[in-house]
Amino acid sequence: MSFHNHLKSAIDYIEANLDDIDFDVAARKACCSTYHFQRMFSYIVGVPLAEYIRCRRMTLAAFELQGSNIKVVDLAVKYGYDSQSSFTRAFQAFHGLTPSSARDIGTVIKVYPRVSFQILMKDQL
User: Which CATH architecture best describes the domain 50-102?
Assistant: First the structure.
């Protein structure tokens, strides 16, 4: 398996487990230590792994708010926040609006897309 495939496997794991990520498992999927995986991720993607996860969680939380009747407190717990107020502060800092106002029809939310990798090889002449 190539480096690209190992990294893709780690990203797939992170995306599938955004609500409860084990960094050691993600690192094992990338075939490196947790320390090196976090450094490598930050170098390749351009943002720290923890920030990437936070942004992806906020994106998915907003989609869930707009597409269901889930309570904000339940969403806060699902995405690892200790309280509804801490989730609301983080949501407002990321999206610029409160979770309850994100439910309004036509509300535009900030979207942080899933990372993807492409390897380009150039012929050196």
Answer: Orthogonal Bundle (1.10)
